[in-house]
Design brief:
342 residues; alpha+beta; Beta-Lactamase; 2 domains; 7 helices; Roadblock/LAMTOR2 domain-containing protein
Length: 342
């Protein structure tokens, strides 16, 4: 761990000593993770990185020790914006925002909750999407991003354990089905029909594909947005099993209205997140995950003015629902025969 660089930014170094050791161990065990920071009560207390390691491949993605101030600024701004995003998602009554993933073409940023005021932030540098002219990849399965995501989520869980707090199952990684996307084969469909209560609307030719994507055990809402307008959507908020997992005041129509409005407005949040990510990693922002205590909201860029939005309210299936969204987005981009251009 001799090549790891530690920077203390607040408080006495000895106060952070135990946490710093955990961060250093996590970096040593996760070669694809290059930069970590701890955000506590409004400020970053320390950072740990591998940018001085000659064996690290971060430089290939434009990372360098000289850019440490930019990485620090990006992480600080992301932690600050998470508070605002948490307020935006609060009306859905699915709990606090506990994990954020910003997946760009040449790297990714991560933010994982330890407590409401303490966060772990991380950056992974490297090729995180298909190179120009190559077929698009299923983004949540890109090894660099997935491995870094799992590692940072594990670090957040470990820090919670030290505080005698239970796991939040960030990313649903602790309960991800071993056989890939989709509910486990031994998990019976609710009410005998995983698409009971389906409602699909809109003029988009993608409506049928959005509807086929849904499963009451996993994804319960999917939408296509073009030029700021929802052109098609499908949901299972009328499903009995889905409704039973929602608060009494959040009926099907209220859920449908909230997520429909969020889908149309998410591009505003993505633009802000993209501005933050560009300080740290190169390329366009292609995928965003807003993981809450009960599920997640997904954003997938298709082109300069259109994207997909998906929602799960099952924390156990956050990662597999993400895979399902990624497969559809990849299929649509492959059908276009070339990566979406600005």
């Amino acid at each position: 761990m001799a090549d790891e660089h530690v920077t203390f930014l607040g408080g006495r170094p000895e106060v952070h000593a135990a946490a710093v050791d955990l961060f250093r161990e996590r970096l040593a065990l996760t070669p694809v993770l290059h930069h970590l920071a701890r955000y506590d009560h409004g400020a970053i207390g320390f950072t740990v990185d591998r940018l001085d390691d000659p064996g690290a491949d971060a430089a290939q993605a434009g990372a360098s020790p000289e850019r440490r101030p930019f990485y620090l600024a990006a992480e600080q701004q992301l932690a600050f914006l998470v508070t605002a995003l948490d307020r935006e998602l609060d009306p859905a009554e699915t709990g606090r925002l506990i994990r954020v993933v910003l997946h760009a073409e040449q790297g990714a940023m991560f933010c994982g909750s330890v407590t409401p005021r303490t966060w772990v932030l991380g950056i992974a540098f490297g090729q995180a999407a298909a190179r120009p002219g190559r077929p698009p990849q299923v983004l949540p399965r890109v090894g660099l991003v997935r491995d870094a995501d799992i590692a940072l989520s594990g670090l957040s869980t470990e820090l919670r354990d030290i505080l005698s707090l239970p796991s939040q199952n960030l990313g649903g990684w602790l309960t991800a089905p071993p056989d890939g996307p989709g509910p486990s084969r031994d998990e019976a469909p609710p009410d005998g029909d995983h698409q009971a209560g389906l409602l699909a609307t809109g003029t988009s030719p993608l409506v049928d594909r959005l509807a086929d994507l849904l499963d009451a055990r996993e994804l319960v809402y999917a939408a296509h947005v073009a030029s700021g307008k929802v052109t098609g959507s499908a949901d299972l908020f009328g499903n009995v099993a889905v409704a039973s997992a929602r608060p009494p005041g959040m009926d099907a129509s209220a859920s449908r209205a909230f997520y429909g409005q969020l889908a149309g407005q998410v591009a505003v949040h993505v633009r802000m997140l993209g501005q933050i990510a560009r300080q740290a990693v190169r390329g366009r922002l292609l995928r965003v995950v807003l993981d809450v205590e009960q599920g997640a909201v997904y954003y997938y860029r298709l082109g300069a003015s259109d994207y997909l939005v998906g929602v799960t309210i099952n924390q156990k299936r956050v990662s597999s629902a993400d895979d399902r969204m990624g497969e559809l987005a990849t299929g649509l981009r492959r059908a276009a025969r070339s990566p979406a251009a600005d």
